[in-house]
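_Per-residue structure_
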Amino acid sequence: MDFGNGSGKMTEGKTESGLAYTLNIMANQWQPTMIYWLGFRPLKKKELLMLLPKLSNDQLSAELHTLQNLRIVNPVKNDEDQYSLTDDGDQLRQLIVSSSLWGLQQQDDNEDLISANVVEPENTASLRDLVKYNDTVEKYLG
């Protein structure tokens, strides 16, 4: 799967397992974090840029285009500047969150550390509160 070209489509003649397909999305620099944030509620591009401060506007547009082609994200009807997760996107978000928690807990176990409890913000949290949560998200999603 070539997600770097923004097409979100498999390279011609190439096949891969379902796991490889999923891992390609999860290994992307921005997509897992975008999926995570869009799982709270529909967000506008400017809100996503605030939650992803290292991402440029052009990069965000390209990643949103790719996620739309993968049927993970859709623009909100009657508001082309706002995006939400599809049902498939919601399922993938659950997988991303559980995999991230599991991975960090395993690392802590390997170092004989006690894992911290993680509490997600409410989906009604203000954008300011979500931005404050960025350090925690980066710890889990990279």
In short: The domain at 18-141 is CATH 1.10.10.10 (Arc Repressor Mutant, subunit A). The CA atoms of residues 1 and 10 lie 5 Å apart. The chain has one domain: 18-141.
